Amino acid sequence: MIWQENISIIVMTTNIRESGTIKCYPYWPSKTNEYLNTGLYQIENENSDEYDSFIITKLLLKKINNSEIRTIYHAHYLKWPDHGIPTGTKDALLFLEKVEYYKELTMTKSPILLHCSAGIGRTGTFCAIDIGIKQYLNEKTLDIPSTVVKMRHERAGSVQTEDQYLFTYLALMDFIKEQKAIQERINNLEITDNQKSLIQRIKTLNNSSLISSAIEPDRSQSLLEQISSTNSNGINRNIRK
User: Fold this and answer.
1) Catalytic residue selected from 9, 43, 72, 116
2) Known catalytic residue: 116?
């Protein structure tokens, strides 16, 4: 399926073994420079980036009697318990951000392959949060109940537990707060740039031979105050906007 559909990104939210039970067959080599041969295919682990709660591995996929080598990014969330939720939203949101980054990096038009063990709880929660983020960015609105209902029409049992449903809300709330904080920093940066421009103009005026030789000190001070007042009003207008 991965070769046929030209999949570039695999998202995995289960561990190989949980509570003494095998949840997923290890279908990729876990160590750098290791190979795994399976049927017509060979998979190489080229390198991995490790984070607190997940690992992103760059895999190279080859097919026997085919010279093409495909790059696949395997994003594996390690701290999402079965039937449960992560301990916080920060790492989960970072995980989603990294998946989106690699989607843009590969410029893939193929779907992302997402799985856990049963494919409904953690998988459904991941999808609900991702859909919510895109809905907010594009429309500045959210409708989590409708999103979950639509998902359950296509995959029964999606977002399996009440905790997972609530975690969807918490993750989206924290994402929106983060977006607003970023916008505030951008606005503050714009004000700082205006202030830098004002300071530069005053410095230029102070160093001007015109002031030093042709303008009396009182007149010079009055002129500086006028410039400062004009720019302050401009900055205030920017803040109100």
Assistant:
1) 116
2) yes
